[in-house]
Amino acid sequence: PTPDADEGRARGRELGISERVRRRGYVDRAELDALYAASALALVPSRYEGIGYALAEALCPGVPVGAARTD
Questions:
Q1: What are the residues whose beta carbons fall under 8 Å from the beta carbon of 35, sequence distance 6 or more?
Q2: Can you give the C-alpha Rg of the chain in angstroms?
């Protein structure tokens, strides 16, 4: 888990979306491709990684993405 995992889960419950949010650990390439194919949105809310690999991977098959803004 990340340092912000508990905060993210609490916010999901607060917004009433926790049943629709999946936080995944490592998945193999075939499962990752299947997840992107079934995704309506990919969120990459990292405070430390700018435009990272996960965001680029999600964009390749045309999945809309959301990222955190950091200063």
A1: 24, 27
A2: 13
Residue 6's pLDDT is: 87
Torsion 57-54-10-24 (CA) sign: positive
SS3 for 3-22 is: CCHHHHHHHHHHHCCHHHCC
Res 13 pLDDT > 90: yes
DSSP state of 32: H
Query: Could you tell me where the DSSP H helices lie in 16-63?
Result: 29-38, 53-59
Neighbours of 4 (CB within 10 A): 13
- At 50-63, the pLDDT tens digits run 667 878 888 888 89
Region 22-50: what's the mean pLDDT?
82
